[in-house]
Amino acid sequence: MRYFVTLAEECHFGRAAAREHIVQSALSQQIQRLERELGVTLVERSTHHVRLTAAGDVFLFETRQILGHIERATTAARTATTVTSTIRVAMGDVSFDTMPLILGAVRKHHPTLEIHQIEAGVPEQYRLLAEGRVDIGIGRAAHAPAAVTSEVIRLDPVGMLVSDGHRFARLDSIPVTHLIDEPLLFAAEGRAPEFNEFVDELCRTAGFTPRAYHGTVHSIRCAADLIRELRCLLCVPRSCGAMPGIRWVPLDPPAFYPWSLLWRVGAETETAPVRSVLRCARVLSATLGWTHVHADSASSSMVATR
Fold first, then answer.
1. Where are the alpha helices (DSSP H) in 131-271?
2. Cys-Cys with 148: which of 144, 176, 233, 261 at CB 3.0–4.6 Å?
3. What is the value of pTM for the model shown?
4. Contact assessment for residue 168 and residue 246, using Cβ atoms and an 8 Å cutoff
5. In a 10 Å sphere around its CB, with 0-12 CB exposed, 13-18 middle and 19+ buried, how is residue 204 labelled?
6. CATH code at 298?
7. pLDDT tens digits for 121-142?
């Protein structure tokens, strides 16, 4: 049909063929095939000109309408694809690099996927996921509700953030039992109760109740000044970013924090963006050995599975 419209506009087989980037004989064959299918003559041919018949005039009008509808339908379909190729991602403290690394891999392999990020603690992530307001999150899944499913993607070595001036800063590792008299900084309970619980379990497993610093923080960056001033220590996974004047020292015996991807039950089968993120995360985890714990460490370490 497009060839017919071009021929009608050019009134010349040679010019129409050149415009459609085909040879003239091929264009002539296409028009003849169309006429046979319709059972009517659309054009009158002579050595000097091409003229539409009455049937050709009617067919030209309708064909232009059809091609216009096809063009609009194509645009609408492409627009719909662009609109739906989005994913809403929630993450806790942005100082940790697990989700940023995953999203970097997603952008590399799915450059047209539009990613929207928000910062939210794990309890809020559960609520947003269950309500369908975000598509995927990250955190410890120890208390995930029935509406949220999870997959451990990284076992992150745990250590202490200490000031360069603290006596622990000179150690290669800190025995957990040495923390008994140290004030430990905890996150606000509504922000990261699952991590506070992890630290509490860590200390109680070593035989003592942690001594909590009289205050809480919402992020590692907020804790930096308190740590530098030797007011407290902060227990964190290794994936937190470096900060001037502060050193991360691993624990002895080793402990590993389980980062899990969180998503709404059924979403991995319903939405291509969620599947894309999960696939990239699994490949990245395997490539970087995120869930591999050395046998010597595993035998004496605390490895939470959720």
1. 193-205, 220-228, 267-270
2. 144
3. 0.70
4. no
5. exposed
6. 3.40.190.290
7. 999 999 999 999 999 999 999 9
